[in-house]
Fold DNA polymerase III subunit epsilon.
Amino acid sequence: MSLRVRVIDLETTGSRPPAHGVCEIGWQDVALGADGQWSVTDERGATFVNPGRPIPPVTMAVHHIVDADVAAAGYWQDVAPAILKPEGGVVALAAHRASFEQRFCTPHLSGGARWICTWKCALRLWPGSPSFSNQVLRYWRMPHGLVREIGLPVHRALPDAYVSAHHLRDMLNAASIEQLLAWSAEPGLLPRVVAGPERGRAWSDLSADALEQFARDRDEDVRFTAQTEVRRRGGYSQPEPDRPVQGQLF
């Protein structure tokens, strides 16, 4: 198996399969070199996918892919396997906010590949970033070697995968792949409170009462982060608070 990770980005008709479908997939490989360093390779590409339904105007307005662009393209079940399971194999797939791509890139299509979420890893490695979107990280970090033209336009599959790959390269050169996979398997560990009256504050600055409220939040990332801080303070000798159904962070 090649020592490479394939970064994936999807443009879709919406966020919930099977009601929504993929209309474009882009990929960019990151590989381990003989010098022991990971690098962004020349192996990249993108292809349209016929989503099997009209593209809503609200999503056209995001990625600017229209029905005529995808009319002659292959369907997802036919297009996906060769990209998600390339010749030579991959040690993992990756995406920014990988939970979204995983809704469409099912284990059947990906061969049960492991996933790295560059968003979750950025929370751990670069907690000082003003935001953790792919594009804010791009301009806050200014990754070495990122060719601006290849990374544009935003909200298209190849440019977004290309930008995410530069974040991933730097992550892999700062932490082991197993560490990134472990972080990706957990909810996001948020550096700061993201909403409400406490927005922007460090978790360590919150009162015990405020922290306990967050530890019961509907959002699993907020809940996980608050519970982690409670444990840091020596709490939870008793069972943890019940976990409600996951909500959306932002």
